[in-house]
Amino acid sequence: MDDSLISSAYSQALEVIASVEPRIAAATRQELTDQRGSLKLIASENYASPAVLLTMGTWFSDKYAEGTVGHRFYAGCQNVDTVESLAAEHARELFGAPYAYVQPHSGIDANLVAFWSILANRVETPYLAKMQAKNVNELTEADWETLRHEFGNQRLLGMSLDAGGHLTHGFRPNISGKMFHQQQYGTDPGTGLLDYDAVAAKAREFKPLVLVAGYSAYPRRVNFAKMREIADEVGAVLMVDMAHFAGLVAGKVFTGEEDPVPFAHITTTTTHKSLRGPRGGMVLAQEEFAADVDRGCPMVLGGPLSHVMAAKAVAFAEARQPSFQTYAQKVADNAKSLAEGFLTRGANLVTGGTDNHIVLLDVSSYGLTGRQAESALLDAGVVTNRNSVPADPNGAWYTSGVRLGTPALTTRGFGHDEFDKVAELIVDVLEHTEAGTTKAGGPSKASYVLGDGVADRVTSQSAEMLDKHPLYPGLVLS
Ligand code: DSN
């Protein structure tokens, strides 16, 4: 693509925005400057292409389109139908899925659609029979009472938050932990790895309706064939949340038993993490669940964001190119380089390494909480997020870990040497940060003291790498 086209598209768009609210145009420019000038290591972030970003900024944003393709509750949806059909078709091809639902606005929305689809599909109530007969009006008050009881009395088994699961996998403060009776499986206390026998034993005892696999902070691959065996043995539906690693599935890094799509009844994802698309969600399903998933809007979703569905189609088209497979492999290779960089410098990694895109650094050996480490790193231009480690003594707010991911900097072109250097810079910051004290002089889990000159030293060394691998290299704003 001609760089001058992108430069003029954004420059002119910013002029238009500035003519109405200059502070938003200024903040948008500043965001680009900040993203260009920092080491983005948040495992769930990436940089979408200009084509994906530009697709979101159109008049599709103005169109309501509740319903499904060809069956809308609003008139005039012919172009939205084209967009949604294309996005779903690309998604089915990309992931080899029988059915794709591209309307969810986020990962949490996608998971809600999945939960309600599973309940509607699997819970034996008069409601189900009457829904299938398409005559919901036949439901009596007694039917509704049974429905409320049955739907509210189901069990979900998911990975615990501190082992790397996600809050929507049955964590109490999330609706998933309230709408289901929930239990969690963890990881082996010695190795930090998933223990499939332990998951199976828990599933046999708990007998969940839904077994959730997938993670947002587990630095290892999962064998989804084994998870499906466990689900089948106890009669559960296997739901996989691949939000974090969808790019590694699309890019054919995770194949065979590591590819969740053939094994899961329902697979959910976001589209903006390793998949490098617009901010949004998606549900892939086996045919058996398609009709229930299709009811996502208006069941639990508001009207679809047509401009984002259009951008999903563009991103999926990009991900179907061979170059995306090269990218995805580099994401995984770079995570290994980052992990090795830490291990050779004496750092402590949960599970002792990685074989996906995540490195989970346990910062307690530096005498810091995750929150202190995250803040000190940010001072040095290294953007990360604090994260619990298994059995975290500091809980989910302060934590003892920092989660790092390679998708974003790999998009910028960082390779082995740069990620080794990133590990060196992070260790430099952590070794020169001390836990601070509270106002009363006691130990603090939040305040910290970063050594003199460390931030400047790290920032200038980062700048060399960031300059060598610019973000949106041809984009020059006038
Ligand atoms: N916020 C995403 C993450 O950082 O993993 C998932 O919720």
UniProtKB/TrEMBL annotation:
Pathway: One-carbon metabolism; tetrahydrofolate interconversion; Amino-acid biosynthesis; glycine biosynthesis; glycine from L-serine: step 1/1. It is found in: Cytoplasm. Its cofactor is pyridoxal 5'-phosphate. It is an enzyme of class 2 (transferase). Gene3D superfamilies: Aspartate Aminotransferase, domain 1, Type I PLP-dependent aspartate aminotransferase-like (Major domain). One of its GO terms (cellular component) is cytosol. GO terms for molecular function: glycine hydroxymethyltransferase activity; methyltransferase activity; pyridoxal phosphate binding. SUPFAM superfamilies: PLP-dependent transferases (SSF53383). One of its GO terms (biological process) is glycine biosynthetic process from serine. The record marks H272 as: Plays an important role in substrate specificity. Keywords: Amino-acid biosynthesis, Cytoplasm, Methyltransferase, One-carbon metabolism, Pyridoxal phosphate, Transferase. It comes from the Bacteria. It holds the Pfam family SHMT. Its EC number is 2.1.2.1. It catalyses: (6R)-5,10-methylene-5,6,7,8-tetrahydrofolate + glycine + H2O = (6S)-5,6,7,8-tetrahydrofolate + L-serine. Homodimer. Belongs to the SHMT family. This is Serine hydroxymethyltransferase. It comes from Nocardioides alpinus. The gene is glyA.
